[in-house]
Design goal:
Helix content: over 70%
Number of helices: 12
Structural class: mainly alpha
Number of strands: 0
Shape: globular
Distance between the termini: 25 Å
Largest sheet: none
């Protein structure tokens, strides 16, 4: 896997030397610096007035549900649009600059190319999640946090980002136009959330269970509540492997043209 490591280092260097990555980090920081204090103030007001509000759900009095999960929903929304901005050039730019042909003639396999690029994209997603988790960590100086559920919840949103990265890598492999790759990636990222809606649209119990099993939100919900389930991890791994495999097939097919 030396070829994959070489490509990983090259792409990782490209990510962290690219203004795009730092602009995305700045964007997330701006949004969270605006949203997070508002959520904390709302939570503080809720705690002060909860005696007067008898209908407040008990979980809303927990900072994990009242603040951190809302923060994760904002992060997920941002990842839908910023992960494609990071991955759109992974293959599309190489094809446009004709360096993709040189890559194909180098002594690396299609699998090594895809694995190297995907791991670099994964490292970039991890960097974005670190930016987001720094806000709850800063809160630890002011309040006692339950670290287990918090870290598992952010691990869950990292897995969602890993799924986005795999789908967006595949989208980038289909075209030499970065803009088309970006639009296709956003469509992939948004559409995967609509699969779970099918569970509410069908009457058949069997069909409903199938939709729930392939729903991203179903498997993410247990993670954000602080519970790791084996079937959820298998589901995320399956989606990632599927789209990396599809990208590898696209790259391999290019060798024979």
């Amino acid at each position: 896997m030396n070829g994959a490591v070489t490509i990983f280092k090259k792409e990782l260097k490209g990510f962290f030397l690219s203004p795009t990555f730092w602009v995305v980090c700045f964007l997330i920081s701006v949004v969270f610096s605006w949203v997070y204090p508002i959520q904390l103030n709302m939570f503080a007001q809720l705690l002060l007035n909860y005696v007067m509000q008898q209908n407040v759900p008990a979980n809303q009095l927990n900072i994990h549900y009242g603040v951190f999960l809302r923060l994760l929903s904002y992060l997920n929304l941002l990842l839908i649009f910023v992960v494609p901005a990071l991955t759109m050039k992974l293959f599309a730019e190489e094809k446009k600059m004709r360096t993709f042909d040189l890559l194909l003639t180098s002594p690396v396999t299609s699998l090594q190319i895809v694995v190297g690029k995907y791991l670099a994209a994964l490292a970039a997603v991890f960097g974005l999640v670190l930016v987001a988790i720094s806000y709850p960590i800063a809160t630890a100086a002011l309040a006692k946090l339950n670290w287990g559920p918090l870290l598992i919840a952010f691990f869950g949103i990292f897995l969602v980002g890993a799924v986005y990265a795999a789908m967006d890598l595949f989208a980038s492999s289909l075209t030499e136009n970065s803009l088309i790759a970006y639009v296709a990636s956003v469509m992939f990222n948004v559409s995967i959330w609509f699969i779970g809606i099918g569970a509410e649209a069908v009457d058949s119990e069997t069909a409903r269970k199938v939709f729930e099993h392939v729903s991203l939100s179903t498997h993410l919900s247990s993670l954000v509540e602080g519970t790791i389930r084996t079937n959820g991890l298998v589901f995320f791994a399956s989606i990632i492997v599927l789209f990396c495999f599809l990208a590898e097939r696209v790259v391999e097919s290019s060798r024979w043209r």
